Each structure stands twice: as C-alpha cells, then as structure tokens.
From TrEMBL:
<dbReference type="Pfam" id="PF17765">
    <property type="entry name" value="MLTR_LBD"/>
</dbReference>
<dbReference type="InterPro" id="IPR041413">
    <property type="entry name" value="MLTR_LBD"/>
</dbReference>
<protein>
    <recommendedName>
        <fullName>MmyB-like transcription regulator ligand binding domain-containing protein</fullName>
    </recommendedName>
</protein>
<feature type="domain" description="MmyB-like transcription regulator ligand binding">
    <location>
        <begin position="34"/>
        <end position="128"/>
    </location>
</feature>
<feature type="compositionally biased region" description="Basic residues">
    <location>
        <begin position="203"/>
        <end position="215"/>
    </location>
</feature>
<feature type="region of interest" description="Disordered">
    <location>
        <begin position="200"/>
        <end position="227"/>
    </location>
</feature>
Length: 227
C-alpha cells in the first residue's frame, strides 16, 4: 500500500500486468478519491486480500496497531486478521466474528486459485502456527457445520470493533460488500465497515483482550480430543 507525500491520499497499487492499461489505472486513482470521501472505513482488496487502496477512515481504525513485518492491515487484511497480535484489540469477537469467516474465504480462494503463490505462502504460514493450523483444518469445518455456511459471509454481517477514536469506541459495524463491475473485472472487491453510533441499539460489545496464543491449548471452536 502506497501513499502520496504527506499521507493524505491513497495511491492504489498498479493493476495486474494482464490488465495494465491507462484507463484501468486512471479508474483506480479516481476510485481512491471516491474512497477518501467516505466517512466509514472502506478498502479495496484482491483475491489474496492484498490491499489495493484504503481510505483515511480505514487507516484511522487501525492506527494504533503495532508494527509487523508481514501482517499490517493496510498491506494484507487476511494476514492482519490471522497473524497480527493486535488484531483482537480492534476486531471484537476476533475468533468467531473475524478469524473464522476470513479462513472460510481463504479456503474458497485456495480452491479457485490453487497455484497462486501468494495464497500458498499464507497457507505455509498457517501451517507453521499450531493454533491457526488447528483452526483451519479442524475448527473451520466444525464451525461451519455448527453455524452453517452463511456465517462465513462478510456482506451484511454485524461485527464488533473497537475504534481508537472515543467518539466511536467499542461499537458494532455492518460489513457491506459493494463492488462495481469495473473493480470486479480487475479481480478486486470492496469492503466497507459501517460503524454504528454508540447511542444506536446494538449487541453488547466486550472490549477484547490481547490474545495469548502460548497460553491456549486450542481454539474454542476446535473440538477437544475425546479421552
């Protein structure tokens, strides 16, 4: 993810080589201007969940997360959700609300793009994390059988977040997927998090605690081994 000098406006990634046209790049640049006019956090992603362009509200939501070599939210949102130690401090109900739905989307992406090197790299990183690997191989199928495949959808889902701006604070957001034809043709999709004002009725939101993987034997969605 790149930014113009001063960090005031997003600069979209270049379009894929097969679609490297002047019109496509100009469209993305204009779309970045549109995104920056949106009040709520909004981001354009590719099939690997690499961030193509994100608006200022998106960067503000994740403004307090610490550095990470491979899992920054404005670089690859999937890696952020799965691997960044600060993810649960922003994304409430991190396991069921964010991690498992993202793993479901990742599994679908791998099925559609089995030779994609970027997705293969993420799969290797999942395999190297015992907790995340258990979630992917055992927890995800168990969770989908329990709650149904609709729970893995992003569009329309209401999920808790904790915004660093006290005007929002701990609240809910409605995930809205809205992808115009031109973005879809480029292989991209857009996700917007419509934050709910604190005085609007919503489900109770518990402030998430920083996860401590080393102290966890297994994720709550992974069935314990029968004895």
């Amino acid at each position: 993810m790149a930014y113009q000098a001063g960090g005031r406006r997003s600069v979209p990634r270049s379009v894929p080589d097969s679609l490297e046209t002047r019109d496509a790049q100009a469209y993305l640049q204009d779309y970045a201007v549109l995104l920056d006019s949106v009040l709520f956090p909004s981001v354009v992603l590719d099939h690997r969940w690499d961030v193509v362009v994100a608006n200022a509200a998106f960067r503000s939501l994740f403004g307090n997360v610490g550095p990470h070599p491979t899992a920054m939210p404005d670089d690859n949102f999937l890696r952020f959700v799965l691997f960044h130690p600060d993810a649960a401090t922003v994304l409430g109900d991190h396991e069921a609300g964010w991690c498992l739905p993202m793993l479901a989307h990742f599994a679908a992406a791998v099925e559609h793009h089995p030779q994609d090197r970027g997705l293969q790299s993420i799969r290797r990183d999942i395999a190297q994390d015992p907790i995340m690997d258990a979630a992917y191989r055992h927890g995800l199928p168990h969770w989908l059988r329990t709650v149904g495949p609709a729970a893995g959808r992003h569009d329309g889902a209401v999920r808790p977040v904790v915004h660093p701006d006290p005007r929002w604070g701990a609240t809910d957001c409605r995930v809205v997927g809205e992808t115009p034809d031109t973005l879809r043709e480029l292989g991209y999709h857009r996700m917007t998090l419509v934050l709910r004002e604190v005085d609007r009725p919503s489900h109770p939101v518990r402030r998430p605690r920083r996860p401590r993987h080393a102290a966890i034997g297994h994720l709550s969605v992974v069935p314990s081994p029968e004895r």
